[in-house]
């Protein structure tokens, strides 16, 4: 089945620093790719998604590009804020479809200091 | 519109006891998923309902876990008897057909 490898953390940055969290995947076909975020005390929220190769998902200043040639979906943000402190999960459908049960990475804890 | 709701938010039980977790999906979502995150590891799929039917229960760890979805609305996940390794955060998610999954806040289960 499909799988995802995510950069492990924790990652600690100062406010306004540049963020990259690496995610690579192994998949049959070209499934949708997702980044989910879990803020302290809250549930998982969809941060962004991309449904086909070269698509760029973006939300709240975060971006990730679906790279077929490198099987990657790295999460980036140009200037992080304290409020971005959370756990970030890369995910994709476990099977060959665009949706359905998800396979997740291990999660990356991001802490942003003022 | 109400999101996915899970009860309780935290449960502390002793080994050998029974615990029942509940998930209320978003109204109108036929798909309901259960996932679990153990000891800071990756979130793992447990099972998938379509309405009241179990579509896929390949992730259920053993027969101590029983999931139900009566009437295709809310779902319960019972662990009986609980073991130490069952500790973790249990997430529920719901979606429309071929749609994005929306997650609840999770239930943190601590088995002592």
Structure description:
The complex is a heterodimer of chains A (114) and B (112). By secondary structure, chain A is an all-beta fold. Chain A contains no helices and twelve strands. Chain A has strands at 3-6, 11-14, 19-21, 23-26, 33-38, 44-50, 56-59, 62-65, 75-77, 86-93, 102-104, 108-113. In chain A, strands 2, 5, 6, 10, 11 and 12 form a six-stranded mixed sheet that branches. Chain A is globular. Chain B has 112 residues and is mainly beta. Chain B contains no helices and eleven strands. Chain B has strands spanning 5-7, 10-13, 19-24, 31-37, 43-50, 53-56, 65-68, 75-79, 88-95, 102-103, 107-111. In chain B, the strands form two sheets. In chain B, strands 2, 4, 5, 6, 9, 10 and 11 form a seven-stranded mixed sheet that branches. A four-stranded antiparallel sheet of chain B has the order 1-3-8-7, with no helix packed on it.
Task: Please give a handful of descriptors for the protein shown.
heterodimer; A: mainly beta; six-stranded mixed beta sheet; four-stranded antiparallel beta sheet; 12 strands; B: 112 residues; mainly beta; seven-stranded mixed beta sheet; 11 strands; 50% strand
Set down the secondary structure blueprint.
The complex is a heterodimer of chains A (114) and B (112).
Chain A: E1 3-6, E2 11-14, E3 19-21, E4 23-26, E5 33-38, E6 44-50, E7 56-59, E8 62-65, E9 75-77, E10 86-93, E11 102-104, E12 108-113
Parallel strand pairs in A: 2-12
Antiparallel strand pairs in A: 1-4, 3-9, 5-6, 5-10, 7-8, 8-9, 10-11, 10-12
Chain B: E1 5-7, E2 10-13, E3 19-24, E4 31-37, E5 43-50, E6 53-56, E7 65-68, E8 75-79, E9 88-95, E10 102-103, E11 107-111
Parallel strand pairs in B: 2-11
Antiparallel strand pairs in B: 1-3, 3-8, 4-5, 4-9, 5-6, 7-8, 9-10, 9-11
In a nutshell, what does this entry contain?
Chain A has strands at residues 3-6, 11-14, 19-21, 23-26, 33-38, 44-50, 56-59, 62-65, 75-77, 86-93, 102-104, 108-113. The radius of gyration of chain A is 13 Å and the shape is globular. Chain A has 114 residues and is mostly beta strands.
